[in-house]
Specification:
Layout (H helix, E strand, L loop, with lengths): L1 H46 L10 E5 L5 H10 L6 H11 L8 E5 L5 H10 L4 E5 L6 H7 L34 E5 L5 H15 L2 H9 L4 H14 L6 H14 L6 H8 L35 H8 L8 E3 L8 E3 L2 H11 L2
Antiparallel strand pairs: 1-2, 3-4, 5-6
Helix pairs in contact: 1-3, 2-3, 8-9, 8-11, 9-11
Length: 346
Amino acid sequence: MILAGIEFTCESVIIDIMSQKVIIIISAIFVGLLLVGALLMIIENKIYHSVAMKADEKVFIVNKGERSRDIAQQLVEQNLIASNFSFQFYLWQKGYTNYLQVGEYSLSPSMTIAQIAKKLRKGQIIESTITIPDGYNLGQIAKALNLEKDALVDYDMSTLKYDFLSNQDSLEGYLFPDTYNFQKNNLSVDTVVKTLLDNFDKKLSQPLRDEISLQGKTIQEIITLASIVQREAASVGEMPAIAGVFYNRLEIGMALQSDATVNYATGKSLRQATESDIKINSPHNTYKFKGLPPGPIASPGLDAIKAVVYSQKNNYFYFLHPNDGGPAVFSKTVEEHNKNRYIYLK
């Protein structure tokens, strides 16, 4: 009995000790959970509360190859966020860690970590508004966008899959002139080409394409002539009539005699080509070679394209622009044209 009692007492002690351990473990877990919960609350508070209520925006740059922790540290140093750890935790939580976009951003201390992280993940970089005027050629477009001089002229077109570029060896004429928003300091040639070609594809609507096909013409022929009309016309209003003049010349096999095409060949921008210029041996010299030049000489705007597709039917074969800047003067015969030259160009 005594031995049994002793055995019972030992078992009770063991159970007691185990119970205490369980209580300690449970208590530790509970305290740990409380601490984790408190930590998460602190982190959540930092994630969804900004450093300042009101503050000016500042430029923040994410460079290629930078790690998320480096970006977080820079954000802290620029007083855009309060916690490096909270920023990285949020990136991990959302799966953004390896997907922050390179570029130049406009951020403010009044933005929360969540707002900043989302902006960097989506690549909402500072944009610049750039206008490409109607009639710009590839060199002028490149200059307007601060690209290398021949970046567009020498562009490899082998990967482009646009139907209107079939059998084309140059982008000239097809980079649509318009106003664009490009990401500042992150502008690649590929981005420019795709953006402008996509816009051309959109602006050359199906009704326009159907009409071109109905007339038995090709898109290249239309854009080539439209580029000439764009460079020759002084106003949108006279474009259809000038297109009509060029069509009349083409119909009878007369040379287009466009000064704009000669300028394209010489690289000049003269109002009237010189006697020596119109003798140069270039396929773009429409004084020397009849028919359309081998391709566009610039990017025509939609007005010029429509003027060529829906040209004015007239009996004119000549036109000129007076020295005083007045509207184009049209003539049916060379004699009438020479008379107008004497009157308006003296």
